[in-house]
Every structure is written in structure tokens, then in C-alpha cells.
């Protein structure tokens, strides 16, 4: 078999570490794809060999759970001690993962989605009024983060937090995420010494999560699911398992949505004709966003296409890791179950073999038929994001309020993407005004 291409500057002991950006690793991996092609190899210290897959054709069979399975990478492994039984951190074959997954399923049923919708509508409207009341351009990342966290705590758990409490959680979360990212900057400790401590501030974050769970409403979907004792869905979750799942739901349930809304606002501010068309679609319902019921959101096909196109160009989770269940080959290169396969969505979602004019923002491409099998912003198979329907509904509803009631004014921002390791626009500012005040 031919040798697998690899980045330049491979050196003994550290491998390809010098070729990868510590600040923007996912983007640097994609940058190498332009020169190295559809598949190449990365080796860093004692981590497993990683094959980076950049084409849709090569990625498609790897999505099949029969031959491939999810792998947790270094960042997930460093966070795992914070919530060891959480859905993100346990193996698919682990009975604890199956128990928690089954317990949480009712929190994303149609009945639960109606409750989320009713709770989210007034919260979104209140936040956006504050956005448009600002005389200065708003920090979009900060505002979308606050909104998304307010939504998951209120709609999911029935807990009302102050803005200070929300800010403390978000700040603590980012400290933890930055701590996990230290392995990209100083990988020696994790790779050679096997250091995997509970990150600092983890206990403060868990205390906050316990407060959210304990002060929530028993009728709220996530609270009800986590405390459910129905024997048909297995044994009840223990107190630790409840808090572990809540940690995952609160972090993953707002961080990725906040990033998606921020990227959508970036694209809408650059494409006012898209915002106008979404506004016309809303006008066709004969309702203001606050009057929309859950079933109305499915009819907003163009606005949903805006979200899908945003996630194609800017997947907030830029990649996911898989492993072969048995020895296999990728583009003629042999892989074993010990290898990591990095499905690079930043490249796969822009593969010109699949997408026409792949770098352009064109929501219409999602109105002409089903998305390609390799469009996977929420992962794949059994380990696809359990809350993806809620995330999409929340994002569409938020954008419906924004384009109907507000104008978006560009500040000349040039896109700069930061990685935490999820992606979001860095230092993105935008002027938001109430439409009634325009003119």
C-alpha cells in the first residue's frame, strides 16, 4: 500500500504537532487538506494515529454504525471526569449510556417540544428587545450565549436564573473548556504522563447545575425525564447520573445553539435579500412570531433552509471521530480499530463533488430535495445529538423573531472563527434595531 500523506515538519517524538495550530486546530487541519488531498495522516505524541477524511465519498461508508463507532478525542477525555456518566463521555456499548439515553428520549418527544416552544417564545422576545435597545452594536457571541442558556434553563428545567447567575455559569464553562484545550498547547502532560484531572472549577459548575436541577419545575421536559422512575425505561437514574446528564444538557444544549445563531446572523447581515425573503415567508403565515405555535415552525421551510445552510458552511462541531470495528481500508490505506478517523466536516460540507458552488451561502440548495447523506452537523447514527430537533426548532424560532421584528446592520465585521473546541465568530458585533423604529 502507498504511504499516507502527512503534514510537513514531522519530527521525532512530537510528530505532526508543529504543523497544527494550537489556537485553531480544526481550521489548520482543513488548511492541510487543500495540499494533502482527500485523506491524510496525523501523528502527535502517544495519541493514536489519526486519518483525516476530507471527501464525502470516503466519509459516507464510515457513517455506518455496523462497521464503525464513535471515539472520544482528547478534549472529551479531559472533560469526562467532570461528568463521567454523561451521554457525551460514555461508550455506546456502556449500559449507563443506554440507560441515560432511554431516560432522556421523552424530553425530546412531540409533546415535550410543544412545552419547549411555549416556554421559549416570550424569553426570545424579551432578550431581543434588550438587543435592539442598545445604542451601540452588540457583542453577538455574548448575547446569543446568554439567550441560549436562558432558554435551556427555563424551557428545559423550568428554572429562572438572573443574568448574573447565567454569566457565572458561562464564564466557568469557558474556563473549563480552555483548560481542556491546554492539551493542544502543552500536549506533553496529557500524552506522556497521562494527566487527566478533574478540571479546575468543575465543582463550582456542578454546584450550579445541582441548583438548576433542584429548583426546576417537575413539569419541565428535562427535569421530568431525568427524575422519571418508569420501570419500562429501566432503573431510575442515580443522583450522580442525573447531575452528570444535566451538566451535558446544559453545556451542549446551549453552546452549540448559540454558535449557530451567531453564524446565521453573520450570514443574514451579509445577505439582506435572504433576511427579506425569510421575512416574507413569515408574513405569509399571517402571524407575528410570538403567535406562532409549535406546528407552525415546520412550515417555515425557507428559514429552516437558512439554518441548514448556516450549519453546512459553519458546522459548530467541525468534525467527529470514528473508529473501525474491524480492520478496514480507506482509499487503499489500511486502518485498524486502534486508529482514529477524523471526519472533517469543514471540508466534507464543502466538497465540490457534492455541493454546487460550495463556498457560497445559498439556502435554496436545501429546498430542492433531501440533504446528502454526508451532511452531518449533529453527528451520525446512535451517537447523533439527542437534542438536535430542539436545537433546530430553537434556532428557527429565534431567527423568526429576529428577521420579523428587527433590522440587522453590518458593522463591517470580517469573519474570524474561534475554537472552544466548538466554532463561533470571534468578536462579532452587529447593530440590531426594532423595525418599527426604522425610517
UniProtKB/TrEMBL annotation:
Segments forming a coiled coil: none
Gene3D superfamilies, per database record: Cytochrome P450
Cofactor(s) required for function per UniProt: heme
GO MF terms, alphabetically ordered: heme binding; iron ion binding; monooxygenase activity; oxidoreductase activity, acting on paired donors, with incorporation or reduction of molecular oxygen
A Pfam family that the UniProt record links to this protein: p450
Annotated heme binding sites: 385
Keywords annotated in UniProt: Heme, Iron, Metal-binding, Monooxygenase, Oxidoreductase
Protein family: Belongs to the cytochrome P450 family.
Name by which UniProt lists this protein: Cytochrome P450
Amino acid at each position: 500500500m502507498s504511504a499516507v500523506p502527512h503534514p510537513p515538519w514531522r519530527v521525532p517524538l512530537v510528530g505532526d504537532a508543529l504543523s497544527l495550530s494550537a489556537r485553531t486546530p480544526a481550521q489548520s487541519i482543513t488548511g492541510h487538506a487543500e495540499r494533502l488531498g482527500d485523506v491524510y495522516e496525523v501523528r502527535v505524541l502517544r495519541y493514536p494515529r489519526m486519518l483525516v477524511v476530507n471527501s464525502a465519498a470516503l466519509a459516507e461508508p464510515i457513517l455506518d454504525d455496523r462497521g464503525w463507532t464513535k471515539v472520544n478525542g482528547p478534549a472529551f477525555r479531559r472533560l469526562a471526569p467532570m461528568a463521567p456518566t454523561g451521554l457525551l463521555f460514555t461508550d455506546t456499548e456502556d449500559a449507563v449510556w443506554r440507560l441515560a439515553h432511554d431516560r432522556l428520549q421523552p424530553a425530546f418527544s412531540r409533546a415535550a417540544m410543544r412545552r419547549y416552544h411555549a416556554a421559549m417564545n416570550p424569553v426570545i422576545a424579551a432578550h431581543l428587545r434588550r438587543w435592539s435597545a442598545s445604542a451601540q452594536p452588540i457583542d453577538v457571541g455574548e448575547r446569543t450565549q446568554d439567550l441560549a442558556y436562558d432558554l435551556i434553563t427555563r424551557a428545559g428545567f423550568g428554572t429562572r436564573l438572573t443574568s448574573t447567575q447565567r454569566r457565572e455559569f458561562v464564564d466557568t464553562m469557558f474556563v473549563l473548556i480552555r483548560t481542556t484545550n491546554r492539551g493542544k498547547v502543552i500536549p506533553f502532560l496529557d500524552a506522556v504522563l497521562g494527566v487527566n484531572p478533574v478540571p479546575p472549577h468543575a465543582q463550582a459548575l456542578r454546584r450550579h447545575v445541582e441548583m438548576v436541577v433542584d429548583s426546576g419545575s417537575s413539569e419541565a421536559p428535562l427535569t421530568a425525564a431525568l427524575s422519571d422512575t418508569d420501570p419500562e425505561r429501566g432503573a431510575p437514574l442515580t443522583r450522580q447520573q442525573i447531575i452528570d446528564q444535566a451538566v451535558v444538557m446544559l453545556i451542549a444544549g446551549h453552546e452549540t445553539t448559540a454558535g449557530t445563531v451567531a453564524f446565521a446572523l453573520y450570514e443574514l447581515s451579509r445577505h439582506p435579500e435572504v433576511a427579506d425573503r425569510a421575512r416574507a415567508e413569515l408574513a405569509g403565515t399571517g402571524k407575528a412570531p410570538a403567535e406562532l405555535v409549535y406546528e407552525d415552525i415546520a412550515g417555515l421551510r425557507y428559514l429552516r433552509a437558512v439554518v441548514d445552510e448556516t450549519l453546512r458552511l459553519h458546522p459548530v462541531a467541525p468534525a467527529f471521530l470514528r473508529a473501525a470495528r474491524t480492520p478496514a481500508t480507506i482509499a487503499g490505506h489500511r486502518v485498524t480499530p486502534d486508529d482514529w478517523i477524523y471526519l472533517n466536516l469543514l471540508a466534507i460540507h464543502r466538497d465540490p463533488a457534492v455541493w454546487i458552488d460550495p463556498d457560497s451561502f445559498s439556502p435554496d440548495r436545501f429546498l430542492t430535495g433531501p440533504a446528502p447523506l454526508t451532511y452531518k452537523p449533529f453527528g451520525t447514527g446512535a451517537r447523533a445529538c439527542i437534542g438536535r430537533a430542539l436545537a433546530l426548532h430553537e434556532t428557527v424560532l429565534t431567527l423568526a423573531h429576529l428577521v420579523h421584528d428587527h433590522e440587522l446592520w453590518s458593522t463591517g465585521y470580517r469573519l474570524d472563527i474561534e475554537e472552544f473546541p466548538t466554532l463561533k465568530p470571534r468578536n462579532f458585533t452587529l447593530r440590531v434595531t426594532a423595525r418599527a423604529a426604522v425610517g
